[in-house]
Amino acid sequence: MQRIGVFICHCGTNIAGTVDVKAVAEALGHEAGVVFSTEYQYMCSESGQQLMRKAIREHKLTGVVVCSCSPRMHEATFRKAASLEGINPYMVEIANIREHVSWIHKDMKEATEKAIILGRAAIAKVHLNQPLQAGESPVTKRALVIGGGIAGIQTALDIAEAGFEVDIVEKSPTIGGKMAQLDKTFPTLDCAACILTPKMVDAGQNEKIKIFAYSEVEAVKGYVGNFNVSIRRKARYVDETKCTGCGLCTEKCPQKKVPNEFNMGMNNRHAIYIPFAQAVPKVATIDADYCMMLKTGKCGICSKVCGAGAIDYKQQDEVIERQYGAIVAATGFNPIDAKAYNEYGYATCPDVVTSLELERLMNAAGPTNGTLLRPSDNEHPHTVVFVQCVGSRCTETDERGKPYCSKICCMYTAKHAMLIREKYPDTDVYVFYIDVRTPGKNFDEFYRRAVEQYGVHYIKGMVGKVTQNGKQLRVQASDLLAGEQLHIDADLVVLATAIEPDKTARSIATMLTASMDTNDFFTEAHPKLRPVESPTAGIFLSGVCQGPKDIPETVSQASACAAKVIGVLAKDKLTCNPCVAQSDEMLCNGCSSCEKVCPYGAISYSDKEFRGPNRTTLIRRVASVNPAVCQGCGACTVACPSGAMDLKGFSNKQIMAEVDAICQ
Amino acid sequence: MQEMMEKRALELLADGTVNRVLGWSVGEFPYDMTPAVFRSAEDLKDRFVYNDFCGANLSKYLIKESKGEGKILVFLKPCDTYSFNQLIAEHRIKRENVYVIGIECYGKADVEKLKAMGLSGITGIQMKNGEYVVETVYGNKTVKASDATAERCLSCKSKKHVVFDELIGEDGDVVEDCNRFDMVEKLEAMTPDERFAFWRGELSRCIRCNACRNVCPACSCEQCVFDNPNSGVAQKAAVNSFEENMFHIIRAFHVAGRCTDCGECSRVCPQHIPLHLLNRKFIKDMNEFYGEYQAGADPDARPPLGTYTKGDREPNEGGNK
After folding, report:
1. What is d(CA A258, CA A543) in angstroms, rounded to the nearest whole number?
2. How far apart are CA A475 and CA A122, in angstroms?
3. Which residues on A lie below 8 Å from B306 (Cβ)?
């Protein structure tokens, strides 16, 4: 029989405001096995812990139940306090009467009753708890960064700086990501390429960093400290080790009609291409969808002109396996497809463009060599209208848009407006906005400069419709402050389209067993206190894959993420979770159900000898669990048809005892 | 048919391919055909029987028999081959120790149906020109085949042998329009109260003889949870009559995704409880949620409840039912 102590936390008024803590302590004090029951204002405080330790000593407690906040907050605190008094830390159970009771109920009588029930369930579990010992597992001292945008590059550079190896896996032919496509960056207006490319070069030259460009993560196995990742290196049809990036092939290739994705399809590239001049790695790639040689077997010009003999039409995808101690998701974002927004005429009017397209139209390496010309007739636009919040801040039921604020659009629109007014003072610029959001260092000053110094017309109100009107675009909008309808004849309309997580993020999250929110942003372990970690151990988050961010914020988060990764890689051994599965060999049928559902590959089978009746020996196929690999997810315990698999610390019996206690 | 099977079995025994045969022999009653192992040619000639009362699925017996010395010959009807395959998938049968002869089957007779027609003293049965000739101590009676065919055979899902070493008779096809979910659909159309009343009515007859469990090829645990003193449910006195009924629901959950719908549970139930309907409900739900899946059709297929795919329903999407 256990000697159990029960400790009820008031959490100030967080719990005590809704739950009658004295009544809970009184009621639980009468439960079988409970020899001590009390309540205290803040159990997590130093004096609260002292109170618990004193009770353990004086009442010779063997088990502890703390009715307090979520175990995610203070389970570790209370386990440590108990272990200082010589109790195994796994003899401590938390009943969450804050998140599960006081914060979600209003009626004190009902809340108190529920708190007692949850406390009773925890007591029932402690009765069946066993002392557990944590093992240790080694750490592979190398990190994987998925995504080679500014977030991934920064994280990789910082990890490499600390002396650890890093691999960057980037699905496109070069690292650089979205930032490489930008012209200038707010609020300082430096050229994006000028500040990004040195980092790209650093990453390319750093001997600790290995870049797998034009590659994708295909499968992830293992656990923190010991991930095993399959990476598909897609066939470039160019030998990376031989190609010098001279670019001769890209000039001579006769297939010139391939939409250039780097310039948002606004001009064409060749079938063999290097995305942009500063690409890292600077290696040509053959686009198999357009290459005449690969499609029809006739051409081969690139191979003839290549002095290095790097062209290899027979190249195949290659899948390599690499081991990592930690994995960073830095999968980034894309603007949403503006075609859904018919009212703005994006699909029908060539002079309606998105903000990212405008970046390319204003960039020296863009389709117009940096001169702002309209796509329809290459004329200089004299009236430019910006529409804010296209697809951002929509209602939850809106199928086209996103409920969140994309965060970066207010600032880049101010930047665009300012740059156009600076370069072409004869241009009228209108910005239609719902709100202007500028909470960042030097952000509001920047926006006010656009309004006050550059004379950008900011109009509060939304654009209702954009239609082609001869050579111009007719913009119908409302000015909410003046309370009037406006008609503006514009030459160019720019849509600040919402950003969304990259489409590949969900499948990557599934492989990493990392959770996502309803918008497909990765969820962090704690929104305030653990913002760069995913709830899955060893998986970290960098950049916009976790939520909309501008460049300064992305870079600081990327560095924060690197610090967390370094924290893992710097350890020689990680303490394992002792709550792992174990197989009862006497019950095991050997059916392999558990092996098939185990996401970590922790279960193996072997033929073992057992004693049969009448001094015979039986050979049976039975499962065994590698405790260093098992993460205690419990999938096997549910899959096991015979009940042979059980999870230490969360055994079927313990869970049934909790359910019974709740249903009493 | 019996002669052909016996002849082939004797050949295989004689040439040493197998050292024993798993088949049927007469049990308690002349119509009660019971699985039996024949260890010699004499034994086989003496006791081996095959007729339209041989409904028993022999695959489960191979869990034990395939682990013995030497190879065993087994006769499997099309539906039995699914159970056999499923047990192969679960590593319960040693395939290399079994020689499978697939036998054609056009449905088996249900002796209870014959008894309900007023026939008694039944001693044998023969199929002649699409009709059953039932031999009784009072003389032969002719019965329309469809009137005496077992319920499960009327909605037979497949006449195809999914695994065999050789065949006696013709191999058939999967029956696409077997309508085996008709009754499940009727139950789904009921209100929850009606459905509860239906199942209480059926399950309240259960006498917990465990025949369903013992015959079920999917119920092949080393130690059944209901027999395991550590499970907390073994030998436990039921709190109320409904708890007793839960046995079948728990059993259906245990075999979900592994049940091949062989129908043995309902065949052996002395209380005539339509237990197969519980399993069919699971099969139907899994088909609808995760795509068509027939347990045992392919021993290498990944079972829907034991597999995660990226296209699976998310918990927040919920189900239709």
Report:
1. 31
2. 64
3. 593, 596-597, 639
Task: Report the candidate in B154, B162, B146, B129 with the shortest Cα–Cα distance to residue B59.
Answer: B162
Q: Which of B220, B225, B306 sits opposite A639 (nearest CB)?
A: B306
Q: Which amino acid is at B40?
A: S
A589 interfaces chain B, CB cutoff of 8 Å: yes
Residue A388 confidence (pLDDT)? 96
B302 contacts on A by Cβ (under 8 Å): 596
pLDDT digits (tens, 9 = 90+) for A314-353: 999 999 999 999 999 999 999 999 999 989 999 999 999 9
Give, rounded to a whole angstrom, the gap between the first and last alpha carbons of chain A.
20
pLDDT value for B310: 63
Q: Is A643 near chain B, with CB under 8 Å?
A: yes
Q: Is the same domain home to A410 and A358?
A: yes
Within 10 angstroms of residue B68's Cβ, the number of other Cβ atoms is: 14
CB contact (8 A) between residue B90 and residue A589:
yes
- Which of B64, B216, B220, B222 has the most A C-beta neighbours within 10 Å, making it the best mutation to test the interface with A? B222
Tell which residue, A477, A166, A160, has the closest CA to residue A327. Answer: A166
Distance CA A126, CA B279 (A): 37
Residues B160 and B210 occupy one common structural domain: no
What pLDDT is stored for residue B299 in this prediction? Answer: 85
pLDDT of residue B66: 92
Would you state the structure tokens that stand for residue A259, as one six-digit string? 């939409």
- CB of A347 within 8 Å of a chain B CB? The answer is no
pLDDT tens sequence across B236-257: 777 777 887 888 999 999 999 9
Same structural domain, A385 and A301: no
Domain span at residue B274 reads 180-321
Do residues B166 and B218 both lie within one domain?
no
> Model-level pTM?
0.72
CA proximity to A413, closest of A385, A374, A383: A385
Residue A44: which of A80, A16, A5 has the closest Cα?
A80
Tally the domains of chain B.
Answer: 2
Is A591's Cβ below 8 Å from some Cβ in B?
Answer: yes
Nearest residue, CB atoms, A593 vs list B225, B232, B306: B306
Environment class of B291 (CB within 10 Å of its CB; exposed 0-12, middle 13-18, buried 19+): exposed
Q: In which residue ranges of chain B is pLDDT below 50?
A: 320-321
Closest-CA distance, B257 to chain A, in angstroms, reads 11
On the question of a cis peptide bond just before residue B274, with omega within 30 degrees of 0, the verdict is no
Within a domain: residue A110?
A: yes
Query: Which domain does A35 fall in, by range?
Result: 4-128
* Neighboring chain B residues of A642 at a CB cutoff of 8 Å: 221-223, 225
Shortest CA gap B319–chain A (Å): 18
In a domain, B287, yes or no: yes
Residue that finishes a domain, picked among B159, B179, B199: B179
Q: Give the helix ranges, DSSP H, for A258-305.
A: 292-296, 301-305
Structure confidence by residue, pLDDT tens digits, A223-232: 889 999 999 9
Question: Which parts of chain A have pLDDT scores under 50?
Answer: none
- Assigned domain for B240 exists: yes
Q: Considering the domain boundaries, does residue A494 fall inside one? A: yes
Q: Which of A507, A519, A589, A609 to mutate to test the interface with B (most CBs of B within 10 A)?
A: A589
Do B196 and B286 lie in a common domain? yes
* Contact across the interface for B306 and A596, Cβ inside 8 Å: yes
The H or E element containing residue A151 is: helix A150-161
Residue to test with chain A: of B60, B83, B221, most A Cβ within 10 A: B221
In a domain, A614, yes or no: yes
Q: Are the beta carbons of A587 and B222 separated by less than 8 Å?
A: yes
Q: How many CB atoms lie within 10 A of CB B29?
A: 12
Per the domain annotation, does A507 fall within a domain?
no
Q: Which residues of A touch B232 (CB under 8 A)?
A: 653, 656
User: What is the pLDDT, as a whole number, of residue B1?
Assistant: 84
A503 touches chain B (CB under 8 A): no
